[in-house]
Design a protein that fits this description.
Elements: E1 7-11, H1 16-27, E2 31-36, H2 39-49, E3 56-60, H3 66-78, E4 85-88, H4 103-128, E5 134-139, H5 152-171, E6 177-183, H6 191-194, H7 212-224, E7 229-231, H8 234-245, H9 248-259
Parallel strand pairs: 1-2, 1-4, 2-3, 4-5, 5-6, 6-7
Length: 265
């Protein structure tokens, strides 16, 4: 394996899709900047990734807080690190009807899923534009393609990420910097536990969940090929195709049936 003199900055890198992406970058010779709130998990991943022979910078940051997001990139600059690749993976959801859910939790989710992504991407671009190269991978979701009753704020944040990713991709088309959106479907990660979503009908058969390793590989390959977006998995491609054919109200009705609690049967 050839060690590249390039860093990949990955948020949410200790678990799930972010962790699998970090492994792929390390396996392909990229140095890593891995970001998580959990210091112990970060140290475990540093020890694990050492076997690849790449440099690893672990940064314990709370991306719900904008000051932590700004300081993350400032500390990299002070260390002389200019990541060639940015992976905005960190994201969370909150399950339940909007009138019942905690508004402060949802504002935190907006901060994490949208604001932290905007800040990191802005700083990344200001750093990389003068260099004329760079790649950005934004975790959208097939949730971005349909309204999401019982998970409305999460779906809304991912719709924003997809639309915004497509817009800045066009703005950046002559700069040497590419923007790719990864659209997984429901994936076997800790996401559903954090969202308090385990009672959803969507999880009645967990065998239907996507494999995070396969999702990460789809995203990695699309990023390296400079694609604008990739829907991971045939089933999810079909789901998105059906959503595209349906009216918004039809798509919302179908999603409500999929995501409502099991006890609502």
């Amino acid at each position: 394996m050839e060690i590249k003199n390039q860093y990949a900055l990955i948020t949410g890198a200790t678990n799930g899709i972010g962790y699998e992406l970090a492994k792929l970058f390390a396996e392909n010779g990229y140095h890593l900047v891995i970001v998580s709130r959990n210091q112990e998990q970060l140290l475990n991943r540093v020890n694990e990734f050492k076997k690849y022979g790449v440099k690893i910078v672990a940064m314990s940051k709370n991306l719900f807080k904008k000051d932590d997001v700004f300081s993350l990139y400032a500390e990299l600059k002070l260390s002389g690190i200019s990541p060639e690749i940015l992976v905005n993976d960190a994201g969370q959801g909150a399950y339940g009807k909007f009138q019942d859910t905690d508004i402060y939790r949802e504002l935190d989710i907006v901060n994490l899923n949208i604001n932290s992504v905007l800040i990191l991407t802005k700083l990344f671009l200001k750093d990389r534009l003068e260099k004329g190269s760079g790649k950005i991978l934004n975790l959208a979701s097939i949730a971005s393609k349909a309204p999401g009753p019982w998970h409305s704020v999460y779906h809304g944040t991912k719709a924003f990420i997809l639309s915004w990713s497509e817009a800045i991709r066009e703005e950046l088309k002559d700069t040497g910097i590419t923007v790719t959106a990864l659209l997984p479907g429901p994936t076997d990660t800790d996401f559903f536990n954090k969202a308090n979503m385990n009672r959803s009908k969507l999880l009645e058969d967990r065998d239907n969940l996507s494999n995070p390793e396969e999702v990460a590989r789809d995203g990695y390959e699309a990023l390296m090929n400079g694609e604008d977006k990739v829907i991971s998995g045939l089933k999810n491609k079909l789901t998105v195709a059906m959503s595209n054919l349906a009216t918004d109200s039809m798509a919302a009705y179908r999603m409500a049936e999929m995501q409502e609690p099991v006890e609502n049967k």
